[in-house]
Automatic annotation (TrEMBL):
<dbReference type="Pfam" id="PF10108">
    <property type="entry name" value="DNA_pol_B_exo2"/>
</dbReference>
<protein>
    <submittedName>
        <fullName>Propable PolB</fullName>
    </submittedName>
</protein>
<feature type="domain" description="Predicted 3'-5' exonuclease PolB-like">
    <location>
        <begin position="48"/>
        <end position="260"/>
    </location>
</feature>
<dbReference type="InterPro" id="IPR019288">
    <property type="entry name" value="3'-5'_exonuclease_PolB-like"/>
</dbReference>
<dbReference type="InterPro" id="IPR036397">
    <property type="entry name" value="RNaseH_sf"/>
</dbReference>
<dbReference type="InterPro" id="IPR012337">
    <property type="entry name" value="RNaseH-like_sf"/>
</dbReference>
<dbReference type="GO" id="GO:0003676">
    <property type="term" value="F:nucleic acid binding"/>
</dbReference>
Length: 261
């Protein structure tokens, strides 16, 4: 099995960037700066979802499946700054050249990482290889790279299952629960900024990690559907996931397992 890297990000408003772009008063609090941006967005677009380049990456959670190993971890503030978080993610792509798997990664996660990576001077040659790189297998990337929407080196499950039609997209939480997986637990993306302001950074990280595992479980089910796994191999993979998560023993994983029928 080739290495598989499932990922998900959580973001917060780029308060420093908003101050710089709009020359805001230094006496305004971070919360006030963000609220001004939300109000402006609501007035112009009818919602408060900020443009992607103004979303600061607070967490990237990853699940790496390589060989017999399965590992889940996060790159997160305050332990690392945004530049280090993004650089280390792309260094993982550089090291393993994995298939990367996401839910709406093409529509949100990766564009955010592109813009924020540019802001911080992040280097990611393997990720951006389009068949003209210096790697021995670079020519293969002309036909299957991380950037092409219809390529599988980045598998955006939401986009593929919807046949690349936004109106056909479904929430990961609901699909996971329909299959029998736990789905989202304790939080959703709309509550991340509130949790961040309250200092609940560990809760954000835990939420992001469970989203990554839900994405991986749905991807395993997809591999069964497309005939890549037999029923027995699917059952073995699900059993391995349960066993590896149980070994971690952290409260959010105990809660996840308890909710998994």
């Amino acid at each position: 099995m080739k290495p598989v890297l499932v990922f998900d990000i959580e973001t917060i408003p780029d308060v420093a960037g908003l101050r710089r772009l709009h020359d805001l008063e230094p006496l305004l609090s971070d919360d006030e700066v963000a609220e001004l941006a939300f109000q402006h967005r609501r007035a112009s677009s009818g919602h408060d979802f900020l443009p992607l380049h103004l979303q600061r990456v607070a967490v990237i959670s990853c699940l790496l499946r390589v060989g017999k190993d399965l590992r889940v971890w996060s790159l997160a503030e305050p332990e690392q700054g945004e530049a280090e978080i993004i650089q280390r993610f792309f260094e993982g792509v550089e090291k393993f050249t994995p298939q990367i798997v996401s839910w709406n990664g093409g529509g949100f996660d990766l564009p955010v990482l592109h813009y924020r990576g540019l802001v911080h001077g992040v280097v990611a040659p393997r990720y951006w290889d389009l068949g003209d790189g210096d790697y021995a297998d670079s020519r293969d990337f002309k036909w299957n790279n991380y950037i092409g929407r219809y390529h599988t080196r980045h598998l955006d499950l939401m986009d593929l299952l919807a046949m690349y039609q936004p109106r056909a997209s479904v929430p990961l939480d609901q699909l996971a629960k329909l299959i029998g997986f736990p789905g989202k637990m304790g939080m959703d993306g709309g509550k991340v900024w509130q949790a961040w302001q309250a200092g609940r950074t560990a809760e954000i990280r835990d939420y992001c990690e469970t989203d990554v595992l839900n994405t991986y479980l749905v991807s395993v089910r997809f591999r069964l559907m497309r005939g890549e796994l037999s029923a027995a191999e699917y059952a073995d993979e699900i059993s391995l996931v349960r066993a590896e998560i149980a070994k971690i023993g952290k409260p959010h994983w105990q809660e996840f397992l308890a909710a998994w029928r």
